[in-house]
Amino acid sequence: MINIYPIFYNKKQYLDLLLLADEQESMIDRYLKRGDMFVLAENNEIKASCVITEEGKGIYEIKNIAVYPQLQRQGYGKKLIFFLLKHYKARCHTMLVGTGDSPITIAFYKNCGFVYSHRIPNFFTDNYEHPIFEAGKQLKDMIYLNISISK
After folding, report:
1. Is 43 left (phi over 0), alpha (psi -120 to 50) or beta?
2. Rounded (5°) CA angle 139-88-75
C-alpha cells in the first residue's frame, strides 16, 4: 500500500534522499525550512520524497523530488507529482520545476505534463561549489518547466 504524507519536523532525516536531487546541502538549506515536505512510502518503507515552496500569487515550485536510485522508473516520482498537483489544486494555478539541462530529467517532467518555461543561464556553475554532472553532461543552466492547474 502506498502512502504519501507530510513531514513537519526533522526534515533533514531524509537528507540522503534530498541530496539525490540537489547535491549541495547549503542549496537544500535555502528552501527546506520554508518548503512543504512529503515522503512516499510503500508498506511503511520510504521510497521517495519531495519539497515544494510557495512562490506567491498562486505559483508553487517543486524544489526537490527524489526516488532512491534502485527504485527509479517504477512510477514513484510520477505518483508524487500527481499527488502534488491534486493537493495544491485549490490554491495553485501554476506549478514550476527547475532542473538541469538533462534529457532524462526533462523527459520525466514532460511526461508528467510540464512544458518548457524559461532558462536561467549558468545557474549551476554560479551557485554550486563543484561541477554537477547528469548522464555524463555537466549541468550549467537551470531549465524551468511549468504546468497549469485548473481549479
Report:
1. left
2. 55
Backbone phi, psi, residue 79, to 5°:
-60, -40
CA 98 to chain centre: 8
| Helix 103-111 with 76-87: angle, nearest 10 deg | 50
Tell me the residue type at 137. K
Q: Mind listing the pLDDT tens digit for each residue in 11-43?
A: 999 999 999 999 889 999 999 999 999 999 999
Residue for cell digits 504519501?
4
Q: Which three cell numbers stand for residue 75?
A: 512510477
Q: pLDDT, tens digit, for every residue of 97-151?
A: 999 888 888 999 999 999 999 999 999 889 888 888 887 888 899 999 999 986 5
The Cα 148–Cα 89 span in angstroms is 10
Answer yes or no: are the C-beta atoms of 37 and 51 closer than 8 Å. yes
